[in-house]
Design a protein that fits this description.
Length: 71
């Protein structure tokens, strides 16, 4: 245990974000996946809340129908 702590004190650059590209690239990959997933889920939720609620009952004049009825 003491040897492990001494190793951490000897080489602090292993924990540095800019120095250790393996840890930084892994972190950036998961950050990118999380951001894309959050963006997609947010867009889906926005589309769901503003979805088309159904066919409204619209009053159509009889003279504008496919077979118009005139007076």
């Amino acid at each position: 245990m003491a040897q492990h702590q001494a190793h951490d004190l000897e080489n602090p650059q292993e924990k540095d974000f800019a120095y250790n590209w393996v840890n930084s690239s892994t972190f950036l990959f998961y950050l990118q996946v999380f951001c894309i997933l959050a963006f997609v889920l947010g867009g889906c939720y926005g589309l769901y809340t503003h979805r088309y609620k159904g066919k409204p009952k619209v009053a159509v004049p009889e003279s504008t129908q496919y077979t118009p009825k005139y007076k």
